[in-house]
């Protein structure tokens, strides 16, 4: 399968502040990639570069083989774009906005749009500005689906949505993407939403990439072990195999890519006495916090 | 695509264009009510004398009307584009970014030209009804820069509004305000005769300045 998105050696600064250096991202056709990171880690910067709204200091991003700084209208018509907060032309009603967009896209198919609109309790002449966040999200999603894009770029799609709408949004999107072999690049600050949606994960921290793999590999390889440390004055956080360590008194949460036997052997070899050694089953949100730290 | 862009701009501006054009026409109507009043109570000869030899401008109240219309249309058209950085939606449409801005600008310019055309025509017709050719010609030369100022204000307001950084926005605003003063230097009726053509050229030159703000936005100056 070919790459729909290829970002090579992206480096960007805001003034003198480094956002990231030599970032490489590949998104394969038909896959759903979730970009996760704390606030300020560079998620929106990446989205802006992908859309050509920001020129990286170094490196380049290609979408369908075209540099994102100069996307042709044909390539843009193949990309569905959801702006953070489901921003749309709020001065229009649902009929006006559908009529407006339909004039731009040759493959326009209003069926999924009206299917979603039929679920909303809005009046035909109601302006989008007067709708709830959830209703706005459905309008934005419906418009993107009607466009029949090959790639969907969704910037913080869960922002402002209540749990019901978030679930509706994700389920509808995943079903659609898999049925139609669409590629999705998504960010969300609600990590648990991503677990239901994505195939691949890219986790960023300030200035660096912490993880980039399929969601299955990541969740299978990244582990949490909890135990009570009996030996005082031991600092495990400097060990190579320790990705992150959270300490509350003698209670330790250790995050690593190593196996249970590896960690136990290490503790035994170094005469470190522990009690209640347990592997904790993590969700994506736990793993994200485990990897990036609580602070 | 052109139809869709015009449709969006029409949704934003239609009521304001209609209302502001009506206000302009009412302003002209009001001018000629006063003209009628002066002719009736002071006599036509005396009133013509005041206009011809005492530099009385019977149309002075029209001075800032086109400016107000141009600025309002720019605000109504471009503020919704920058709120929540909605301009990103516009730039993402499958059409060249500069081209779509020029279509939007073309719509606004067309709307203003129609509105100003109506007001200007009404003013010219009414002036011809009450005054002789010499007075009408001088009046037309004098009001023309005000209408040009309306267009220039529209173009410059687009530049200021689409600029994403407040510091630059303030600088553009000061430069724009200084430029617009050129259109309101005053003087006797007809005094703009030697410079009107130059003002038309200057107005045309600044007409696409919004492209610069949009370019800066696209390069990440947010």
Describe this structure in words.
The complex is a heterodimer of chains A (295) and B (222). With 295 residues, chain A is of the alpha/beta class. Chain A has two domains: 3-89 and 147-213, P-loop containing nucleotide triphosphate hydrolases (Rossmann fold, 3-Layer(aba) Sandwich), CATH 3.40.50.300; 222-292, Alpha-Beta Plaits (2-Layer Sandwich), CATH 3.30.70. Helices cover 32% and strands 31% of the residues of chain A. Chain A has helices at 43-50, 73-76, 94-102, 111-118, 133-146, 163-180, 191-197, 215-221, 260-269, 284-292, and strands at residues 3-14, 17-28, 32-37, 58-63, 66-67, 79-82, 151-154, 183-187, 200-205, 208-214, 223-229, 242-248, 251-256, 274-280. In chain A, the strands form three sheets. A six-stranded mixed beta sheet of chain A has the order 6-7-8-3-9-10, sandwiched between helices. A four-stranded antiparallel beta sheet of chain A has the order 2-1-4-5, with helices on one face. A four-stranded antiparallel beta sheet of chain A has the order 12-13-11-14. The longest helix of chain A has 18 residues, at 163-180. Chain B has nine helices and no strands. In chain B, helix 3 (65-82) packs parallel to helix 6 (133-162), helix 5 runs antiparallel to helix 6 (133-162) and helix 6 runs parallel beside helix 8 (196-206). Helices cover 79% and strands 0% of the residues of chain B. Chain B is elongated. The chains are: A alpha/beta (295), B mainly alpha (222). The A-B interface holds A 48, 51-55, 73-74, 76-77, 79, 81, 83, 85, 87-92, 96, 99-105 and B 1, 3-4, 7-8, 11-12, 80, 83-86, 88-89, 91-96, 217-220, 222.
């Amino acid at each position: 399968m070919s790459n729909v998105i290829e970002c090579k050696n992206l480096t960007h600064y805001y003034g003198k502040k480094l956002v990231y250096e030599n970032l490489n991202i590949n998104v394969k056709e038909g896959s759903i990639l979730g970009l996760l990171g704390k606030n300020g880690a560079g998620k929106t910067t990446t989205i802006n570069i992908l859309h050509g709204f920001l020129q990286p200091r170094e490196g380049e991003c290609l979408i369908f083989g075209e540099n994102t700084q100069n996307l042709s209208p044909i390539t843009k018509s193949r990309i569905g774009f959801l702006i953070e907060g489901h921003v749309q032309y709020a001065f229009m009603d649902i009929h006006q906005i559908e009529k407006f967009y339909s004039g731009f896209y040759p493959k326009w198919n209003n069926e999924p749009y009206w299917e979603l609109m039929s679920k909303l309790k809005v009046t035909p002449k109601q302006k989008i500005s007067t709708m709830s966040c959830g209703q706005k999200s459905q309008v934005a999603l419906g418009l993107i689906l009607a466009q029949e894009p090959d790639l969907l770029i969704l910037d913080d799609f869960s922002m402002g949505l209540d749990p019901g709408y978030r679930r509706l949004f994700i389920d509808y999107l995943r079903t659609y993407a898999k049925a139609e072999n669409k590629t999705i690049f998504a960010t969300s600050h609600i990590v648990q939403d991503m677990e239901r949606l994505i195939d691949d994960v890219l986790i960023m921290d300030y200035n660096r990439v912490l993880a980039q793999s399929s969601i299955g590999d990541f969740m299978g390889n990244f582990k949490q072990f909890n135990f009570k440390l009996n030996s005082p004055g031991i600092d495990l956080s400097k060990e190579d195999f320790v990705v992150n360590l959270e300490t509350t008194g003698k209670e330790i949460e250790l995050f690593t890519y190593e196996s249970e036997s590896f960690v136990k052997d290490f503790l035994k070899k170094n005469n470190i006495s522990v009690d209640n050694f347990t592997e904790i089953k993590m969700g994506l949100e736990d793993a994200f916090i485990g990897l990036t730290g609580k602070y | 695509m052109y139809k869709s862009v015009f449709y969006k701009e029409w949704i934003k501006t239609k009521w304001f264009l209609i209302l502001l054009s009506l206000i302009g026409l009412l302003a002209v109507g009001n001018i000629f009510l006063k003209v009628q009043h002066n002719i009736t109570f002071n006599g036509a000869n005396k009133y013509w004398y005041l206009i011809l030899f005492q530099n009385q401008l019977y149309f002075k109240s029209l001075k800032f009307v086109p400016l107000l219309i141009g600025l309002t249309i720019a605000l109504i058209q471009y503020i919704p584009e920058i709120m929540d950085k909605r301009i990103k939606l516009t730039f993402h449409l499958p059409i060249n970014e500069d081209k779509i801005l020029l279509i939007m600008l073309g719509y606004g310019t067309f709307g203003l030209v129609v509105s100003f055309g109506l007001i200007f025509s009404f003013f010219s017709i009414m002036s011809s009804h009450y005054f002789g050719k010499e007075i009408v010609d001088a009046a037309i030369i004098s009001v023309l820069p005000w209408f040009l100022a309306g267009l220039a204000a529209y173009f410059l307001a687009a530049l200021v509004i689409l600029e994403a950084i407040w510091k630059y926005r303030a600088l553009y605003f000061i430069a724009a305000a200084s430029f617009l003063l050129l259109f309101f230097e005053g003087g006797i009726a007809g005094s703009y005769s030697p410079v009107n053509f130059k003002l038309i050229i200057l107005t045309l030159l600044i007409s696409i300045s919004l492209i610069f703000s949009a370019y800066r936005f696209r390069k990440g100056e947010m």
